[in-house]
Specification:
This protein has 344 residues and is of the alpha/beta class. The chain contains 13 helices and 8 strands. This is acylglycerol lipase.
Length: 344
């Protein structure tokens, strides 16, 4: 009788343990099915925490910038990263994983994006965004010492124009598939935009999806590597974006306006900062011929073209991109050291 009672106790204990484990699993499954957008936000929070990134805010004259950072200023220059259109600071997470932890890294939400202030009166043109990023830099006093600026796509345009306007702030510049150039060849996205423009923007803009199907098409457009994304995750990605789509449309119209569309091209000759260009050879959004345009204007720049890679370089080739940027920073510091020795 006692043995039977002990067996029953063991069964009850295992049942309780199994039930305890099943509850979070069921909650996870329910969240995945019902609230995929919430899981995506938790995912980014967990990844930031795992990589040692902290989210901070910088306030200036009623305007608030949201940014994540890791490390402190040291012997290597600080690195400020500017994300692309309709994205956010967490865009950089896949690449940050492969950068040394001692580096001082900052990823800021671009004006109006994610946690940074959004106003109806703000100027979201390229020049307007450059002014805001300078305001951020001065607010956190990042330019007390020259830093390295990295920008991708729209963020690359802003980074390039920033370098032209504020060369003393920087010791190096990395442009990843930057927009804002008069490229030699048209991309698939350029062709799609002709149709959108001819329709007077009644057609959907490919970079502003509002359904899971449109999200899937956007991912195919931006990435050469084919990622298998479950339907629920696609729905979650759309759910996160839909409340902001009107804003994204406003920004898109600003950066495609006459004053902004070729802003980088118009400022290329003014860039004196050591420059690195990284581009995916299969980029369907901004044609890779833009790399040759930059190299022709600034023959001293370093150009790295990545095989089997599209527009989403940071997502498709995070390890390689991190290594290229870090190697470039080291090489520039080595060049500066040699110059200093020659002068002395």
């Amino acid at each position: 009788m006692k043995a039977a009672g002990m067996d029953q106790d063991m069964v009850n204990m295992f049942a309780i343990a199994a039930g305890t484990l099943a509850i979070p699993l069921l909650l996870f499954m329910a969240s995945f099915m019902l609230w995929p957008s919430s899981l995506i936000k938790v995912y980014y929070w967990y990844w930031r925490r795992t990589l040692g990134l902290q989210v901070r805010y910088a306030d200036c004259a009623g305007y608030r910038f949201c940014f994540s950072h890791r490390g402190k200023p040291g012997l290597r220059p600080s690195i400020l990263m500017l994300h692309d259109f309709s994205a956010h600071k967490d865009t950089w997470l896949p690449m940050l994983k492969y950068l040394p932890k001692h580096l001082h890294l900052l990823c800021v939400d671009m004006p109006g994006h994610e946690g940074t202030t959004r106003t109806n009166t703000d100027d979201y043109s390229i020049q307007g965004q450059v002014k805001r990023i300078r305001q951020f830099v001065e607010t956190i006093r990042l330019n007390r010492k020259p830093f390295h600026l990295v920008g991708t796509s729209m963020g690359g345009t802003v980074a390039g124009v920033y370098a032209a306007c504020h060369p003393s702030d920087l010791c190096g510049l990395t442009l990843i598939c930057p927009a804002g150039l008069k490229n030699q060849n048209e991309s698939k996205f350029d062709s799609q935009m002709h149709d959108v423009e001819h329709s007077h923007y009644t057609l959907d803009i490919p970079l502003i999806p509002s359904t899971p199907e449109e999200m899937e098409e956007m991912l195919k457009l931006c990435s050469h590597v084919r990622f298998r994304v479950p339907q629920q995750i696609l729905q979650g990605l759309v759910d996160v974006r839909i409340p902001h789509n009107d804003f994204y449309h406003e920004v898109f119209m600003e950066i495609m306006s006459e004053n902004s569309k070729y802003a980088l091209h118009e400022h290329l000759q003014e860039i004196i900062t050591p420059l690195q260009v990284i581009w995916g050879k299969q980029d369907q959004v901004v044609d890779v011929s833009g790399a040759a345009v930059i190299a022709e204007t600034l023959p001293g720049c370093r150009v790295d073209l990545l095989e089997n890679c599209g527009h989403s370089v940071v997502m498709e080739r995070p390890r390689q991109t991190a290594k290229l940027i870090f190697d470039f920073i080291i090489s520039q510091q080595g060049t500066e050291s040699v110059s200093m020795k020659k002068k002395s």
